[in-house]
Hints:
Blueprint: H1 7-12, H2 23-35, H3 38-43, H4 72-76
Amino acid sequence: MQVEKTKENMCNCLCMMCPSYEKICKLKNQDENKNISTKDLQNKTHYEKMFCAFEKSNCIHFDRGCICQNCEVFKKYGLKHREYCLKTGGI
Ligand code: SF4
Ligand code: SF4
C-alpha cells in the first residue's frame, strides 16, 4: 500500500532520529522540513524525510542503522523494506 503524504504520517516518521540521518543533512533540510504545507507535501516527489513515501535522499549516503521497523507508518502500511533513504522503494 502506497504511503500517504500526510502531516500525520510525517509526524510519525522516525527518520530524523535515525543514526543514518547525519547532522549535516538535518541542518541542510531543517527549514523545509519544518515549514512545508500539506498541499506542498502532496505535490512533491522528493522530500528529505519519510522516504518510504518519496524518493531516496539526496543527502544520506551511508547505512548507519535503520529504525523504520519501529515506526508507526511502517506498521500502518505493512511495509517490508528498510533504508528507504538509500534506495527508492527501500532495500
Ligand atoms: S517507515 Fe521509515 S521512512 Fe517511512 S516514515 Fe517510518 S521511519 Fe520514515
Ligand atoms: S529510511 Fe531508515 S535508514 Fe533512512 S533515515 Fe529513515 S529510518 Fe534511517
